[in-house]
Amino acid sequence: MVNRIIALLVKELLANLRDKRSRLVLIVPPLLQLFIFSFAATQEVKNQTLAILNLDHGRPALTLERDFAAAATFGAVRHLQRAEEIAEVIDRQQAIAVLWIPEDFSRELERGGTAQASFILDGRKTNAAQIVQGYAMRILDAYRDEWSAQGRAGGVRLEPRNWFNPNLDFRWYTVPSLVCILTTVVGLLVTSLSVAREREMGTFEQLLVSPLQPLEILIGKALPALLIAIVEGAFIVLVGVNVLGVPLNGSLPLLFASMAIFLLAIIGVGLFVSSLSMTQQQAVLGAFLFLVPATILSGFASPIENMPHWLQIFSFANPLRYFMTISRGIFLKDVSAAVVWAQTWPMAIIACVTLSLATWLFKRRME
Amino acid sequence: MNGCRRRMAALIGKEFVQILRDPSSLLIAFVLPVILLFLYGFGVSLDAREIRLGVAVRDSGEEAAGLLAAFRASPYFRTEVARDTRPLEAELLAGRLRGLVVIPQDFSRRIGKGIDPANLQVVADGSETNTANYVQNYAQGVARTWWNQRLRKTGQDLGGPELVARIWFNPELESRNSLLPGALAIIMAIIGTLLTALVVAREWERGTMEALMVTPVAITELIVGKIFPYFVLGMLAMLISVGISVTLFALPFRGSLAALLLSSGAFLLAALGQGLLISSAAKNQFLAAMAALITGFLPAFLLSGFIFEIASMPPAVRALTHIIPARYLVTNLQTVFLVGDVWSLLLPNVGILLLLAAGLFFLTAGKTAKRLR
Amino acid sequence: MKPVDDSSLVIENLSYRYDKDFPLALDGLSAVIRPGIVTGLVGPDGAGKTTLLRLLTGLLLPTTGSLRVFGLDTRDEAEKVHRFIGYMPQKFGLYEDLSVRQNLRLYADLHDVTGAERQRAFARLLVFTGLEPFQDRLAGRLSGGMKQKLGLACALIRKPRLLLLDEPSVGVDPVSRRELWRMVGELVDAETAVIWSTAYLDEAEKCREVLLLDGGRLLFSGPPGALTERVAGRCFQVQTIDGNRRRVLSHALQRPEVQDGIVQGRNVRIVLRPGQKPPAPALLEAGAGSRLIPVPPRFEDAYIDVLGGGPGGVSALAESISPLSGEREVTVEAVGLSKRFGDFTAVSEVGFSIRRGEIFGLLGPNGAGKSTIFKMMCGLLRPSAGSGRVSGFDLRVSPGQARSRLGYMAQKFSLYGDLSTRQNLEFFAGVYGLAGWRRKETVTRMIEIFGLYPHVRASARDLPLGFKQRLALACAVMHEPAVLFLDEPTSGVDPLTRREFWTHINGLVERGVTVLVTTHFMDEAEYCDRIGLIYRGRMIAHGVPDDLKEQVASAALPDPTLEETFIALLRQWDTERGEPS
Question: Would the CB atoms of B215 and C18 count as touching at under 8 Å?
Answer without folding.
Answer: no
